[in-house]
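Narrative of activities, Objective 1.

The group set out to show that a structural description can be obtained from nothing but a protein's sequence at a throughput compatible with the screening campaign. Below is one input-output pair from the validation batch, recorded exactly as produced.
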Amino acid sequence: MFAVVVRVELPEGGTIEQGRRMLDAEVIPQVKSAPGFIAGYWLHPPSGREGMSVVIYENEQAARGAADSVRPPEPVKLLHVEVREVARSA
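Output recorded for this entry:
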């Protein structure tokens, strides 16, 4: 298994509820339809505006394809995308 780890900067003045609606309407349906998708987790920032997601794929090829297609919806700003092999899970 491989994970795509994404960090984004959320818009100033945005609310958690607005973020949830955007995830539900746009991001999650697109991610779930990607080949090799297993599971995804979107994390709220403890403070500030930096959000994070970790999405698990069956193999490296699927993860790299997904990583190459990361395009957060406006006005979210992409900060970083990386692919990592999952060492263990529980």
